[in-house]
Specification:
Elements lengths: L13 H12 L2 E3 L14 E3 L2 E3 L5 E3 L6 E13 L2 E8 L23 H14 L10 H16 L17 H19 L3 H32 L3 H17 L9 E2 L5 E2 L2 H17 L23 H10 L13 H7 L1 H5 L1
Antiparallel strand pairs: 1-4, 2-3, 5-6, 7-8
Helix pairs in contact: 2-3, 4-5, 5-6
């Protein structure tokens, strides 16, 4: 087997088989079994007349070439009757590539009345002061995106829950800036007056930070009672659940007979079979009517009242499409969007 070398202890109990099965599922190798050693340097558990190998070092099979030695250190006991297992390895430390951060337009600001009004005015100005949007979709879409970036701003690209100071506001920032200036002034001129000024600003910053946190939490609790707040709560819970999982990606799948497939080729082949069956399977309950001629008839134009109803029914806060323009934009533009 690929996950086992030729130099392991021959006898294998249930617990040992579980280790082998785990290594097989996770595409790992049992390092102890790849190096030829005297039995004394392979036995990890010794009690009375029992001598066996129950402690292992596992690594990804791709990293096996980086390990040059693995053995049991005789005379060094980690726990009673257990011996220390050590390995020698050479690791190449590579600089971690940062994932590309995608900055997004803060379309959610259109919920605020003043932001919506400013966006509408700036957009109409950019389109030449027209009340009705022009028919050229490519030009109009680009102007909408550019106006959104200028008026609403763009996000940093980080998830909201990654920010430790999500409660931060401008008042706190101004107070901290004044405190920094007072500290700099006191460092340059160590007078009692400058010291007292710095201490007073320090106490004020602590009070304002406490108030800002309390206000932010109160708003959070109030928002949780709304539908949008429920979405935020579920999104945060899902993110915390993903962060708490040690294994983020499952590399195994079962075949038709319930056997576990571990190799990448067999897993991909099984997925291909499953998708082909799913997309090509006919519904036995569906009765096919053969020989029915197609009916061609005139389709009425979409009416304005239908567009208004559709916009009203569309939910906010959904992911944008390829044009990067959410439904909030069309709701903000109102009648101009209906005419367009």
């Amino acid at each position: 087997m690929d996950m086992m070398g030729k130099f392991g202890v021959k006898e294998r109990k249930l617990e040992g088989q579980m280790v082998v099965d785990f290594a097989k599922r996770m595409d790992m190798a049992v390092v102890n079994t790849y190096f030829q050693k005297r039995e004394e340097h392979r036995v990890t558990y010794k009690s009375g007349g029992r001598r066996t190998q129950v402690d292992y070092i596992l690594c990804r099979r791709g990293n096996l070439k980086e390990i040059s030695d693995c053995k049991v250190v005789v005379g060094e006991s980690v726990a009673r009757q257990h011996r220390m297992v050590v390995c020698r390895m050479t690791l190449m430390v590579c600089k971690k590539k940062r994932s590309k951060i995608e900055k997004k337009t803060k379309w959610w600001k259109l919920k605020k009345k003043e932001c919506c009004e400013e966006f509408r005015q700036k957009l109409m100005q950019a389109l030449g002061g027209q009340v009705v949007l022009p028919d050229n979709w490519k030009t109009t879409a680009e102007v909408i995106r550019e106006t959104g970036r200028k008026v609403l701003g763009v996000s940093s690209g980080r998830r909201k829950e990654d920010k430790e100071t999500w409660w931060w506001n401008e008042e706190v920032q101004d107070s901290i800036q004044r405190k920094r200036l007072a500290k700099k002034k006191w460092d340059m001129d160590r007078t009692e007056e400058n010291r007292q000024e710095y201490k007073e600003l320090q106490r004020r910053v602590k009070r304002e930070v406490s108030k800002a946190k309390q206000k932010a939490y109160d708003e959070l609790y109030t928002r949780l009672d709304t539908r949008e707040g429920e979405k935020d709560l579920y999104r945060l819970a899902r993110q915390r659940d993903r962060d708490g999982k040690e294994v983020q990606q499952v590399r195994v799948i079962k075949d038709r007979d319930g056997r576990v497939l571990t190799s990448e080729e067999s897993v991909q082949r099984r997925w291909k079979e499953y998708i082909e069956e799913l997309m090509n399977e006919e519904n036995k309950r569906e009765k096919r009517v053969e020989g029915v001629n197609s009916v061609e008839q005139k389709v009425d134009k979409i009416r304005k009242d239908e567009v208004r109803k559709a916009l009203k029914r569309m939910k906010s806060g959904k992911a944008v499409g390829p044009d990067d323009i959410p439904v909030e934009v069309w709701k903000c533009l109102g009648e101009a969007a209906v005419e367009f």
